[in-house]
Amino acid sequence: MRIRNKESDKAYHREYYIKNRKKALEESKRWREQNHEKKIAYDKKYSKEHRKEDNARKKKYNKEHPEKVKERGKRYRKLHPEKDHEYRRKHPEKIHLIDRKANLKSKFGISIQTYNDNLSAQNNCCAICGKHQDQQKRAFAVDHDHETGKTRGILCNICNLGIGRFKDDITLLQKAIDYLTKYK
């Protein structure tokens, strides 16, 4: 006769499962099929009771395995393109924000918070012409040095394109100023 306690029961069940894995899986599957409603109710109750722990566990996993998470998302979108398109169609504002964050991070290495902080420091105005963000249809551009990649400020699109057309060349810009001054 064996002495029963919680630990010995766990060990016994673990041992039984290892020896009879196939049978145990079949029994488990059969029980789930026969008690489908019970299983759904239990899962909902468990999920509700353990939501915080589950979210913390998922958050930790996502932080520790960003490449796996990214790959899983890619696989899902590839397998279910219609769901991806439907989500994008239903939530254009969310998608725009996600794309904006990714763009700022990949191109300039800054977060949306840094962008907003820099724009606030400029009173939500272009660093060159002083036009307010509300006067523009598009979001302001991040001006950066093309050689070093370092960000300089936030500009309206016209000023950003202007600097870009002059290839960030101060001498060329000075010649343009001299030219305009000459014909004033």
CATH architect. name of the domain at 110-184: 3-Layer(aba) Sandwich
Portion of residues within helices: over 70%
Q: How many strands appear in the DSSP assignment?
A: 2
Instruction: State the CATH class of the domain at 110-184.
Output: Alpha Beta
Strand order of the largest sheet: 1-2
- Which fold name is given in CATH as the topology of the domain at 110-184? His-Me finger endonuclease fold
Please work out how many helical segments DSSP would assign: 10
Q: Report, as a whole number of angstroms, the end-to-end distance.
A: 108 Å
Helix/sheet category: mainly alpha
Structure description:
This protein has a domain at 110-184: 3-Layer(aba) Sandwich (His-Me finger endonuclease fold). Strand 1 and strand 2 (151-155) form a beta hairpin. The termini are far apart. The relative contact order is 0.04. Helix 1 (6-19) crosses helix 2 (21-34) and helix 5 (66-79) packs across helix 6 (81-90). Strands 1-2 form a two-stranded antiparallel sheet. With 184 residues, it is mainly α. The chain contains 10 helices and 2 strands, in the order ααααααααββαα.
Summarize this structure as a short list of keywords or feature phrases.
two-stranded antiparallel sheet; 184 residues
Secondary structure elements and pairings:
Layout: H1 6-19, H2 21-34, H3 36-49, H4 51-64, H5 66-79, H6 81-90, H7 92-108, H8 112-121, E1 141-144, E2 151-155, H9 157-165, H10 170-182
Antiparallel strand pairs: 1-2
Helix pairs in contact: 1-2, 5-6
